[in-house]
Design goal:
Helix content is 52%, strand content 20%. A five-stranded mixed sheet has the order 3-2-1-4-5, with helices on both faces. The longest helix is centred in the C-terminal third of the chain and has 32 residues.
């Protein structure tokens, strides 16, 4: 499960069973860390999630800002609630890329706002899956 955290909305994405392809699932209204973690835990149980990837909004220079610190704290909360692996992943510019992809797909401007968080979560998760699968493929290559 991939997450794009925001103060107002949380984009949620899931991968297929093979861990190859990510797709947006839902956008939740953020109400507070405790209730948000509970809602995400319910989604994780419902969909049989085995790992969570939380977008980490680093500053352009790579440092942690206040939003990234919130994401790290939320990832820790999720680890305790879910008792599953929860990793963070650099998400710089994913919302911009998600907006561009939605525009390219012909999604009207007024409809993009409702879908951008899911699309960003899908990008975060897809990058994680691609990296993990590339590492796994490299490990299987004969020496």
């Amino acid at each position: 499960m991939g997450l794009d955290l925001g103060d107002v909305r949380i984009g949620v994405a899931l991968s297929d069973e093979t861990g190859t392809l990510a797709a947006g699932l839902v956008t939740l209204k953020a109400v507070g860390p405790r209730k948000d973690a509970q809602a995400l835990a319910a989604l994780a149980r419902e969909h049989g999630v085995v790992e969570v990837v939380v977008g980490l909004p680093l500053r352009l220079d790579g440092s942690l800002g206040s939003q990234a610190e919130k994401a790290v704290a939320f990832a820790e909360r999720l680890r305790r609630v879910l008792r599953l692996p929860v990793v963070t992943r650099d998400e710089r510019l994913t919302s911009v890329a998600a907006g561009e992809r939605l525009a390219e797909a012909g999604v009207k401007r007024r409809d993009r706002k409702a879908r951008i968080d899911q699309a960003a979560a899908a990008l975060i998760l897809q990058e994680h899956l691609d990296e993990r699968n590339a590492v796994a493929a490299g490990e299987r290559e004969p020496a």
